[in-house]
Each structure stands twice: as structure tokens, then as C-alpha cells.
Amino acid sequence: MNHQTEITPRLGRILACPKCHGNLIAELSGSVEVGVCSEGCGTWVDIHQEKAFWDLKPEVFTVDEMLQFRKNYEGLGPQGPLRYINCPVCKQLMNRKVWGSYSGVFIDRCQAHGTWYGKEEVEKIREYIQKGGVEFEKFCLADSGMSALGLKLSQLETRLEHKINSLQMRARF
Ligand SMILES: [Zn+2]
Ligand SMILES: [Zn+2]
């Protein structure tokens, strides 16, 4: 029997699971086609589908809830020993990195082709987004931007004071 049509046809070729090397099966996640390992190793998401794949609506949060986020959210933690795996498209070793800033979920990413999500990682990231993880990241970014601005302003103020002082000194003589 020919199962070719069931296998992820993205980029016009059959992709192999980067872990067990079996074929990835095309599945729809919402309207996004992803490649899933039939042995359950994980899910491959094409780089062009990444945004649509994570198009989830988080709950609405207040600033106080946002500040609580890190206490309330537990990441996935390390999943076995660190082992780099190859991109199923270009076969180059992928980068291993944390998804977002605070999810604690490690994913494998090829800058050119897409991302490999291991077992449980898709679920954990979904939970992270729904609990406001992405909002929290923006919140932290804005907060650090504000304090950086505050620091710059106070430095500017100090410099102005120095300048005024030295001008006053000079005016006295
Ligand atoms: Zn596999
Ligand atoms: Zn690649």
C-alpha cells in the first residue's frame, strides 16, 4: 500500500523523524500541517507555520497576576540528557534553546527550516502561552525598558548637574 499522501509533503519530500528516523506523518493541528512521528518522538513544525501553529488566545491578566506568573508557572524541566539532533530537512545539527524566555521548555530549532518539539513539549508550551507566558515576557521587556530609560535619565541629570556646577565655579572667578 502506498502511504505517500499521508506523509508530510512539505518542501516536496518525505521527512524522517530526527530521533528514530521513521517517517513523519502529516497531521493537521487546527489549520496547520505538522509532521508527527508515529512512534511518538515529537512534532515537526515548518518555519513558515510556526506563527500560525502557536496562534493561541491567552486569558486576560491584570498586572498583579502578571507579577505572579513566575511563581505559578512550572516549566517542563530537562528531558533526558542533552543530545543535539539533525534538522529533518537539511540534516544539519539544530540549535537547542528554551522556547520564549521563561517557559523552561527546550526545543530544537533549525533557523532555516523549522522547529522540532519533543514529547510533551507542545502541550507544555501551549499551557505556557495560555497561562500568559508570552504576555509576561512582553511585560518584563517593557519593565526593563522603562528602568533602562530611568537609568539614562538619571545619568543625564547627574551630567547636567556637573556641568552647571563647573559653570558656576567658572563664573565665580
Ligand atoms: Zn520518531
Ligand atoms: Zn534545516
Could you characterize the architecture of this molecule?
By secondary structure, the protein is α+β, with helices and mostly antiparallel strands. It has one domain (4-172). It contains 4 helices and 6 strands. The protein has helices at 50-53, 63-72, 121-130, 133-172; strands spanning 24-29, 32-37, 42-46, 95-98, 106-110, 114-118. It has a 6-stranded antiparallel sheet with strand order 1-2-3-6-5-4. Bound molecules: zinc ion (ZN) (2 copies).
Brief summary of the model shown:
By secondary structure, the protein is an alpha+beta fold.
Question: What keyword list fits this structure?
Answer:
173 residues; alpha+beta; 6-stranded antiparallel beta sheet; 4 helices; elongated; disordered N terminus; binds zinc ion
Topology:
Blueprint: E1 24-29, E2 32-37, E3 42-46, H1 50-53, H2 63-72, E4 95-98, E5 106-110, E6 114-118, H3 121-130, H4 133-172
Antiparallel strand pairs: 1-2, 2-3, 3-6, 4-5, 5-6
Q: How much helicity do the residues have?
A: 25-40%
Number of strands: 6
Order of helices and strands: EEEHHEEEHH
Structural class: alpha+beta
Radius of gyration: 24 Å
Write out the distinct hetero groups bound to the structure.
zinc ion
Shape: elongated
Q: Count up the helices.
A: 4
Mean pLDDT: 83
The largest beta-sheet arranges its strands as 1-2-3-6-5-4
Distance between the termini: 99 Å
Instruction: Give unreliable regions as ranges.
Output: 1-8
Strand fraction equals 15-25%
